[in-house]
Design brief:
Arc Repressor Mutant, subunit A; D-Maltodextrin-Binding Protein, domain 2; two-stranded antiparallel sheet
């Protein structure tokens, strides 16, 4: 049976094309990443990466697996968030877009207070032009956009 954690390791390794970098991102050791990848390759009975020294490339099987693995990993995160929300806790990842002025003078204080109240939420902030922040909101790339008045 597939393991969501193994798939997350695979997705991270496929994005970085480097087991050491994947290990750093996942707060794991490089041998542990290699073991997870080998377990998946054993499960599917085919290689997912072509290993050439320290250089990695995805095999055709790896290329085929990647989008499905990304979808399953995202679904796994969504399940975790949904179950945590039943406990009345806010959990997940907040994406914020904001204009330069707001990003410099207002957002740090708002975000610090929000993070203090909701420690299980991770946040990513995109400081950009007012127009770009609103565009990101309209396209669904951020959950909220903040900008100063003209």
């Amino acid at each position: 049976m597939l393991d969501a954690h193994q798939l997350n390791v695979f997705v991270t390794a496929a994005k970085t094309l480097n087991f050491t970098a994947a290990a750093r991102q996942l707060h794991m050791t490089q041998p542990s990443v290699s073991q997870h990848i080998q377990a998946l390759e054993t499960h599917f009975d085919m290689p997912l990466f072509i290993r050439s020294g320290r250089h990695l490339t995805l095999t055709a099987a790896g290329e085929m697996l990647l989008p499905m693995a990304q979808e399953l990993v995202q679904l796994s995160h969504n399940i975790e968030e949904s179950m945590e929300s039943l406990k009345g806790e806010i959990f997940g990842h907040l994406f914020v877009g904001c204009s330069t002025t707001v990003g410099k003078y207002v957002l740090p204080f708002l975000l610090a207070e929000f993070m203090r109240r909701h420690p299980k939420v991770e946040a990513s902030c995109y400081v950009t032009s007012r127009h770009q922040a609103m565009k990101m909101l309209c396209e669904g790339n951020v959950h909220v956009a903040l900008a100063s008045a003209r």
